[in-house]
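Sanity check. The docking grid for adenosine-5'-triphosphate depends on where the pocket ends up, so I'm generating a full predicted complex first rather than guessing from homology. Inputs follow.
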Amino acid sequence: MMGRLAIKDVRTTYSILKPYMIAHRKAYMGLFLLLFVDIGLTLSFSWFFGHLTDAAIHSHFGLMKWLVPLGALLVAVSIASTYLTTLWETIATNGVKRDFSADVFKHILQLPGKHIDGKHSGDLLAHFTNDIHNLDGIIGSSLIYLIKLPFIYVAVFIYLLQISWKLALVSVFVAPVAMVSGVVFGFMLRKNNRLIQDLVARMNVLLNETFSGLFVIRSFLMEKFIFAKYVNRNQELYALELQNAKLRGWFYVGSQAAASVTFLISLCLGSYYVSSGVLTVGALLTFINLVNHLVYPLTELAGQWAGLQKSISAMERIFKILEIEIESDSLPEAIAYKPMLSAIHFKDVSFSYDGQKLVFDQFHMQIPPGKIVAIVGLSGAGKSTLFHLLQGFYLPQSGSITINGRSTAALTVSEQRSLFAHVSQETVLFSGTVRENLQLAKPGITDAQMIQAASIAGIHTFITALPNGYDTEIGERGSRLSGGQRQRMAIARALLKDAPILLLDEGTSALDSETEYHVQKAMEKLLHNRTTLVIAHRLSTVQNADLILVMDEGKIVQMGRHEEIIRQEGLYRRLYRLQAEKGAPPSDDHSFDTRVV
Ligand SMILES: Nc1ncnc2c1ncn2[C@@H]1O[C@H](COP(=O)(O)OP(=O)(O)OP(=O)(O)O)[C@@H](O)[C@H]1O
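Predicted complex below; grid placement will be based on this.
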């Protein structure tokens, strides 16, 4: 992995992009060669104009006869060179961007949970919609241009010296002025570009949150507020772009003025030399043409320089992601475990999300193999955190978690995550078909297995009634399905993963009684031959559990079977009674809703 680097300049940016550019070295070498072809063409065309003019003035038809086909040849080479430059530049630039963005994407997929927490999805999105494309300046045309500049300068200057050394000296005095102002403006542009890119990222966050929460926005009548926020940010962006344009404009005006002065002085002096017989008309034409090639790059410098600065500030943003240590070297893959009854042991586990407030302090927990364990407790007690730690989404600061006597620290990410099938409270499905969503569970799932799992989860009949059956699109995040249907899809997905340990979160408040009953039945079928941890909200689950763990503020305050702990004075009985007082006397069909307390 890349070490910690502070992006300060172009060199650092290139040190990151170097391997990607080397991978496309053929295209870059081609472009480098074409650069010399281009310089050769520039000199040849100028030479051609001068000689053709002199030949015409002096009626040298013999010379003109072979100059004309030579001119045609130069045009042909120029056309071929333009075509190849366009092609190779696209191959190089897009090739580097394709490979680099794939690596950035892979890196984000491998970021540890604690680093994902602090990132906005819109901000991450901006790396791909904005930052990667802004790298064009440093890997594409600006790079070629800036490499070409010194070469063309030297080549043209040597040619000019041969025509008239006095004129040549006059014509290059502008170069150092342009260089110095380029550095100063470059610095200012980079600062401005950084602000623009940060703002674009913030706008992405706003857009992302707006579109994903559109119904909440409508329900709370937040449209005006959101719209005003968007308009303000857009205005801010406009102001920054304007500032950027002014900077580029001044740089352009400066270099244009210096270039025009150079051109005019050369033209006046040159005309004087022609009238005094020192230069021929053809030589002056060659000279003026070449001076243009010195002047033109300087006027273009502002644009190229801005592109380069944009790239560097884009890379600064991407680098903040790249410098975070990832949790594994490669992307994890599902491993097939044979059915096994797993014992889980938390020993002196201390954990904090933010490094300050401890969720677990020297936490101890032992889950016997093959049992159904219900976890109950107040909201914020640490139940979900327990699931996060088990699956290795977060690592404990101290202590150990062992599964069948093996520490999770010794497991690879693939090994650890393949041990669990998780049905979470908030069901996340992906855009695509029912089949695609179910097949995500494990590679190589057959249709027969898929139908079996969907039948157990009680969703097969519903799926077959859809217009395209298993090939029906379910919309973004499964939006075309109801809450209960989504949950049963998640159960089918967990069944197909067929992992040794089940983690269930009974968040069924959104379901009607009949759906809840079906979901519950489907979940029960998941429980055989495995160790199961259920964050329990239903009395039936709690009563049927082999073991109940009652959690409070990151500690297990009571444990045992329902009949045992209901007799004890403590949180469990309080929760149970409160449920009864709510007017819903506990029975098998009612929710053991710990959240209401
Ligand atoms: N990503 C996070 N970053 C910081 N703190 C967090 C994060 N997730 C949870 N917490 C905090 O950790 C504590 C335990 O949260 P956890 O989600 O494990 O509780 P829970 O028992 O599952 O609650 P609930 O029943 O409401 O889902 C809470 O104080 C919560 O605010």
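Relevant for the grid: Confidence is low (pLDDT under 50) at residues 1-7, 583-591, 593-597.
Also worth noting: Residues 117, 353-354, 359, 377, 379-385 surround adenosine-5'-triphosphate (CB under 6 Å).
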